[in-house]
Design brief:
By secondary structure, the protein is an alpha/beta fold. The protein is built from 19 helices and 18 strands. It has three domains: 289 residues, Alkaline Phosphatase, subunit A; 149 residues, Gyrase A, domain 2 (2-Layer Sandwich), CATH 3.30.1360; 29 residues, no CATH class. 35% of the residues lie in helices and 15% in strands. The radius of gyration is 28 Å and the shape is globular.
């Protein structure tokens, strides 16, 4: 390894859940993370609302809420269409800010357009849409590093995902799926160590996707073998492999400090599929019409063709089409069958980011909600959704809030009008929102059990695990304020990193370092000569205080 060791190793552990970590640590299965926790602190940390990958990492790396950085998803809403590709945060990340303060910074694999174009060191960006499969020349800075990586480590090291998430092989063969995740972890460690040798940096930030992928695909369905286990076997093995990967980086790099953060947690999904658009129609907020042939074709291709095509063919097709074809498929399939001139509210139907958008006049192409009445309609929809019940009688949503209740800043209007947090059922499982290709099976209702051919799971379909609102933060060493502070959220990571690197915090941070309050300054004793009283006044005051028992009788 290079002679210079990083002052800080920052680990992005995507999808690592605090409950899973506590259980595995209790079983003695995460020795590396446990050792770090004993040398510092390990605590839960609140994600963003929604607890989705792109807004969560953008919040973690900027220190501000989505209303200020403007990243709400890996797609951008445009009327009744969506465009793939998250925006750049409107606020610089601490990766960039620390570079401006004189540190060299290297970042590897974080999703979205978060790294900036020219970090003071290097960057290899992660996927900007879930359809991307590997880093190309545009993902790597400096460009010469891209060619050197491929020459020394081979092209496979730049793949974003080791396992084929579309093909649903996890349920069919979990051992094979976990083996692919192990290969991906090995490649990520090899690339991180190679980059550290090629371009040593003061701050190295490395993102690992394995726990998130395992969480989405390896939780058992209700009534399947292992459904009652706190941590399913495949996820348990993946977490052990992730722990070992972190250990290899620590052994080779010997950083002065370590921070590990997860953007959200993960948990199992329920045997319940819900269509928010059909529910809104049942409440009188949306009108439904016939789906056109193009809409039906788009939904079928989105839900089936991407899964059935061999991976090399699928990758080639997506690279050739760029974002134009995915944008069209996603837009036509998501919103098919909505009669816009009679619709006040609609949803993107995303399990990882459940939300409702209003059909506002002047904002949406065929909007009917008057801008002045948007708040009243939002409140009406929110009240209806709060009363929505699952088939077993339990609440469908734990919380329904307007975007103004959650976010603040100049970019709040990029967010959906209402943000929903699903309520877990009695077994702690999250209901799934209905993907477009399964919509016809609702048969006029707004919910159904998971169909038999959807139980295996897979990207674009009914995944087996869903995001949860808490992740973890681990720091070794840990500053006193982090140990003692109240509830933490992802905005607290920025001051933590700046403090460990002994650099000034940017003025725009929303949660500056929470230091212990300074003890009150000792008051100087009063000088009797400064009290404005005459000697006669003082004698009189003393006699009165003595009569009340506060002081002894003064000498006369």
């Amino acid at each position: 390894m290079a002679e210079r060791k990083p002052a800080l190793l920052f680990l992005g552990l995507d999808g690592v859940d605090p409950t899973v970590v506590d259980r595995l640590r209790g079983d003695g299965e995460l020795p590396v993370l446990s050792r770090l926790a004993e040398a510092g602190t390990l605590r839960p940390i609140e994600s963003t609302v929604p607890a989705a990958t792109c807004p969560a990492w953008a919040t973690c790396l900027t220190g501000v809420n989505p209303g200020r950085h403007g990243v709400f998803d890996f797609t951008v809403a445009d009327g009744y269409e969506v465009r793939f590709g998250s925006p750049r945060p409107a606020v610089p990340t601490w990766l960039e800010m620390l570079g401006e303060q004189g540190l060299s910074v290297g970042a590897l694999g974080f999703p979205g357009r978060l790294h900036g174009t020219r970090l003071a060191g290097f960057h290899v960006a992660g996927w900007d849409t879930p359809l991307e499969t590997e880093a190309g020349l545009r993902h790597v800075y400096p460009p010469s590093l891209y060619h050197r990586i491929r020459e020394k480590l081979g092209p496979d090291v730049l793949q974003f995902a080791a396992a084929d998430e579309f093909a649903a092989r996890a349920a069919d063969d979990p051992d094979e799926f976990v083996a692919r995740l192990a290969e991906g972890l090995d490649r990520r460690v090899a690339l991180a160590l190679f980059l550290s040798r090629e371009r040593p940096v003061d701050l190295l930030a490395v993102h690992f996707q394995a726990a998130d992928t395992a969480g989405h695909h390896l939780w058992p369905r209700a009534a399947e073998a292992g459904a009652a286990d706190t941590v399913p076997d495949g996820l348990r093995r993946t977490m052990r492999m992730l722990d070992a990967a972190v250990g290899r980086l620590l052994d080779e790099l010997a950083p002065a400090a370590v921070v590990a953060v997860s953007d959200h947690g993960m948990g199992p999904t329920a045997d319940l599929v819900v269509s928010l658009n059909a529910l809104l129609a049942a409440g009188g907020f949306q009108a439904r019409g016939a789906e056109g042939a193009l809409d039906q074709t788009a939904a079928y291709v989105r839900g089936n063709i991407l899964r059935l095509l061999p991976r090399p063919v699928r990758d080639l097709a997506l690279r050739t089409a760029g974002t134009l074809l995915p944008d069209l498929l996603e837009s036509r399939s998501r919103f098919a069958g909505i009669a816009w001139p009679q619709t006040r509210a609609f949803s993107d139907e995303l399990t990882y980011a459940p939300s409702v958008r209003l059909n506002v006049r002047g904002r949406e192409p065929e909007g009917i909600v008057e801008p002045a009445g948007r708040g009243a309609v939002a409140a009406e929809v929110a009240a209806f959704l709060r009363e929505a019940r699952r088939p077993d009688g339990g609440p469908l949503f734990a919380r329904v809030r307007s975007r103004e209740e959650i976010y603040d800043g100049p970019l709040v209007d990029r967010a959906p009008d209402l943000l929903l947090e699903p309520a877990l059922d009695a077994a702690g499982r999250t209901p799934l929102l209905c993907p477009p290709h399964l919509r016809p099976r609702l048969d006029g209702g707004w919910w159904m059990p998971i169909p038999a051919d959807g139980r295996a799971g897979g990207k674009g379909g009914l995944l087996r695990g869903a995001h949860r609102p808490q992740g973890i933060v681990l720091a070794a060493p840990a500053p006193a304020w982090l140990r003692k502070a109240g509830p933490l959220d992802l905005r607290d990571v920025a001051p933590l990193v700046h403090g460990l690197l002994e650099r000034d915090e940017p003025a725009h941070l929303e949660r500056p370092r929470r230091r212990a309050p300074a003890p009150p300054a000792a008051e100087a004793p009063l000088d009797p000569a400064d009290d404005g009283l005459t000697n006669a006044d003082r004698r009189a005051l003393s006699r009165r205080l003595a009569a009340l028992g506060y002081i002894e009788e003064p000498d006369r």
